[in-house]
Amino acid sequence: MKRILYEDLETALKAREAKIAVLGQGYIGLPTSLLMARAGFTVYGFDVNRNLIEGLSRGETHLRHEKGISELLDELKERNYFPTGDLSELYGSDVVLIAVPTPKGKDGPNLTMVLSALESALKIVRRGGLIVIESTLPPRTFYDLIIPTVESNGLRVGRDLYLAYCPERALPGKLLHELVHNFRIIGAIDEKSGRLAKILYESFVKGGIEVVDPLTAEMVKLVENSYRDVNIAFANEVARMCEVLGVDVRRVRELANRHPRVNMLVPGIGVGGSCLTKDPWFLFWASQERGYRPNLIKRARELNAEMPYHYADVLDDVVRRLKGGRSGVIAVLGSTYKGDVPDPRESPVEPFVKELIKRGHAVKVYDPLVRSSFGGEYAPDILEAVEEADAVAFVTDHTEFKMIDLRKLRGAIRKEGPVILFDGRLLFDPKEAEEAGFIYISVGRPPKILEGSLITIEGDE
Ligand code: SAJ
Hints:
Layout: H1 6-14, E1 19-23, H2 29-38, E2 42-46, H3 50-57, H4 69-76, E3 81-84, E4 93-98, H5 112-124, E5 125-133, H6 141-152, E6 161-165, H7 175-181, E7 184-188, H8 191-202, E8 209-212, H9 214-245, H10 249-256, H11 279-289, H12 295-322, E9 329-333, H13 349-358, E10 362-366, E11 377-378, H14 382-386, E12 391-394, H15 399-402, H16 406-412, E13 419-423, H17 430-435, E14 438-442
Parallel strand pairs: 1-2, 1-4, 2-3, 4-5, 5-6, 7-8, 9-10, 9-12, 10-11, 12-13, 13-14
Antiparallel strand pairs: 6-7
Helix pairs in contact: 1-8, 2-4, 9-11, 9-12, 12-13
Bound molecules: ligand SAJ.
């Protein structure tokens, strides 16, 4: 494989004539490949998942709910974006971008996929080329593992190969928009690597780019997600306090947020997704190993993870009180980890459903975007999910659910006697739900029914 001179690579990147390979065509790899192809580069999108590649080759994407992706795929496929499952097509790439998952193991990060992608990248990249890692890395991984791995392959970093860490920080549901408009961080081992990576990202990023060292970049990514997790945990803690103190968290949050320096997030049944459920642990483990134990981050993670169990407990209790101690039929609406995104990974709905089943309830699950039912009976539509229900639990904030007519929903339930509506994402007005004929219980509000039926909630008329 012929070596490329630094100046020639810089020129090829500026002219958008470089050959780019992207390892991993998932949530980040695919949109990033398409954006670089739209900028004019020739991009090969590689994935070990044959079905995914076959789908992409036919113009079908698993990210069709993400605005703009299907259109870009139609426009660029076989023009200058080539999905492939064959690594040999990628030999001689000027740039290799790694965008594979970094899952959480039991007591530490699982870097197997990143390291195996790095081994592949080292085989296919040209001497003098650039490797960029986008996969999330725990702090110090770049210095302690990535650089030594490259060097153990006989390559001198900064001479035979340029290297950068550019963590992805785009929000599922708004991927294309955020990849283009968000501010971007490049962690580079030396000036030349930083310059090359910056030229590459400038081809599609409009939100500004800052080049720093790799460790700072690793920290920034994890701090952002831990910040969000801790802030949601704060909202969840306030909700739990409101439940025992007899006040509605909605009103408390609304008024507290009128203070110019307070911005409390929305409490809910839990925090899911593949990022917030692991990144705080990456930060925790790395720091604890070196002598400081970040207890706030740990407690926040635990508190968020406890939420689905707490609400399974509340719902179990209320259903049994209404049914003279017997279990009931519970319709769970939503199974993805957040609204309008067809991703059930690490969804808090999973432990919620499993706990209700464990406690003897019959659970039916409906989600407009995915078929996951976590051991509950899958219902193909909302009416089938609710027709026999003693309780309807809204646990994902899909737009379809926010628009629902509660009177019609109540009318579709054939059950005699009271029906509970559990609002796990604060989607509804308590009064409207009660006027529609439900017994309304929600996150951050003491269930009226717990004390006979007369517990007063401050703020209610
Ligand atoms: N959630 C709440 N209350 C809120 C906001 C969210 O309970 O007020 C819940 C959601 O329902 C969901 C979870 O938190 O279960 C996470 O959702 P999210 O929208 O906050 O974040 P993710 O996981 O989809 O994406 C995050 C983003 N990080 C930050 O906003 C700091 C995104 O920018 C990252 O790129 C992504 O993680 C990632 O890949 O790391």
